[in-house]
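Per your request, structure below.
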C-alpha cells in the first residue's frame, strides 16, 4: 500500500466532519433520499448538499436522481480503503510491541 494516496486522503478528509460521518453511518442501513437525510440535521438544504457533494466527490456515496428525488447510496468498497490502511497500521504497531515485549521479557537474548 502506498504511504501517500490522494484517494485515501480524500476519504479521510470527507470523514473528518461529524455530519458526513453521520450520513455514512445512516446510509450503512440502506439507501435514503437527500431530503430524508437532511431532515436529521439542523442545517439548510444547501448547506447539507455541500456535505453530500464532498462525500460523493470522494467516492464514499453515489447519488441517483429519479424525477425530483435524489437518492444516496453508500459505496462500501471505498470504505475498504480506510479499513486496509488501518489494518496495515495495526500490523505495524503489533510488530513493534511484539519486539518490545521480547526485548523486555528476554533481555539476555537481546545482548548478542
Amino acid at each position: 500500500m502506498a504511504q501517500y494516496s490522494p484517494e485515501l486522503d480524500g476519504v479521510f478528509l470527507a470523514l473528518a466532519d461529524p455530519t458526513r460521518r453521520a450520513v455514512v453511518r445512516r446510509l450503512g442501513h440502506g439507501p435514503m433520499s437527500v431530503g430524508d437525510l437532511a431532515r436529521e440535521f439542523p442545517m439548510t438544504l444547501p448547506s447539507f448538499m455541500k456535505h453530500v457533494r464532498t462525500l460523493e466527490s470522494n467516492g464514499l456515496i453515489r447519488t441517483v436522481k429519479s424525477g425530483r428525488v435524489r437518492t444516496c447510496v453508500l459505496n462500501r468498497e471505498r470504505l475498504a480503503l480506510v479499513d486496509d490502511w488501518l489494518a496495515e497500521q495495526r500490523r505495524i504497531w503489533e510488530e513493534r510491541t511484539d519486539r518490545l515485549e521480547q526485548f523486555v521479557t528476554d533481555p539476555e537474548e537481546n545482548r548478542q
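The longest helix spans residues 76-105.

Regards,
D.
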